[in-house]
Amino acid sequence: MVADILLGKVVMDLQRNEINSLEQVKNLRIDKDRPFFSAQHEEIANGAVTDIYFIRTNEILKKQGLLDTTVTAEVFSRRDGVLAGVEEVKNLLSGKNIKVWALKEGHVFKAKDVVMRIEGAYGEFGIHETALLGILAHSSGWATAAHEIKQIVKEKPFFSFGARHVHPSVAPVMDRAALVGGASGASCILGAKLFGIEPVGTAPHALFLIIGDTVEAAQAYDKHMPEDALRLMLVDTFKDEAEEALRVASSLKERLYGIRLDTPSERGGVRPELIKEVRARLDQAGFQHVKIFVSGGLTPEKIEKHIEAGADAFGVGSYISGRPPIDMTMDIKEINGMAVAKRGRIPGRTAVEGLERII
């Protein structure tokens, strides 16, 4: 309760210059030397990212004396998916004199399911429709992709490696959403920290290329990295993957946690046959403890085949990062307690199980 109150004060500070008139929009000035084009926290909170027609609506309703009209609005999805982004929406609307109910993050929903309900004066939240829908849409899309991977890997770990495929301003949002969807970990530092865990990852090809030899690079990693850092080494940089796997295993022995196969598409990518060979050669040499980690262009279909071939864990990037958002729509369903709806929609509140009060 205390944390929620403090959070509300922080958000209210960010909302201090909330944009609710066309004059404010006209007078909004952007620093020409702005280094990045992503929205800042205060710009999200004060409505600078909203669609202009919500500001026009706000101004008209104010002049008509209707801005404080009590409404009940519902947010529903256009496709099946897994819900994420609820915490951000809660933060966005925190401190406002409204009531908000939502399904829990990680909830599996069907198309047209109501995932959130807001009740209060329209002027309290109307201008934030763009932001809250965008938050839920993108986060739920990424969470859904991760959930699909989770259904294939089951208890085997997989990690979100897609930060390099999206704008850095949303990379932590994506990785957090992937974790909500079932990912075991994430490589993006901020994304993992926001979820309350430590980021995962060992070493890129750059380390191996600069040092010049796979075993020497593995030894350097083992020497300089802390004990809690997994000894998981790439083996596709210079030579045959099976040969390199044996060389690294022979050097690090029991300290080697696993080898990572990330063979590029120019050489056919990681194939089930390669995984089988590497597994067999490691086992024959007495390195049954060494895990096989696979990354690079993975899809549920590929992962399923890789598991059959003997893979133990996976790094998934583009399948999660490339997932389109799940369109979300917000409809007003009550005005001053009276059921309403635009044509094609059923007036009044929708009967929904699982909604919980969050504000």
Short description:
The protein is of the alpha/beta class and 359 residues long. The chain is built from 15 helices and 14 strands. The chain has helices spanning 2-14, 22-27, 41-45, 52-63, 86-93, 122-125, 129-153, 171-181, 189-195, 205-211, 214-224, 241-252, 272-284, 300-309, 318-321, and strands at residues 70-77, 81-82, 98-102, 108-109, 114-121, 158-160, 185-186, 232-234, 258-261, 291-295, 313-316, 328-335, 338-339, 356-357.
In the CATH scheme, what's the topology name of the domain at 141-321? TIM Barrel
Low-pLDDT runs: none
CATH superfamily of the domain at 141-321: Aldolase class I
Task: Please describe the biggest sheet, giving its number of strands, its sense, and whether it closes into a barrel.
Answer: 6 strands, antiparallel
Number of helices: 15
Helix content: 40-55%
**Class of secondary structure makeup:** alpha/beta
Strand order of the largest sheet: 13-12-1-5-3-14
Distance between the termini: 11 Å
What oligomeric assembly is this protein in?
Answer: single chain
Shape: elongated
| Average pLDDT score | 95
Order of helices and strands: HHHHEEHEEEHHEHEHHHEHEHEHEHEEE
* Secondary-structure arrangement, i.e. CATH architecture of the domain at 141-321: Alpha-Beta Barrel
* Residue share in β-strands: 15-25%
Radius of gyration of CA atoms, rounded to a whole number: 25 Å
Q: What is the CATH domain class of the domain at 141-321?
A: Alpha Beta
Quantity of strands, as a count: 14
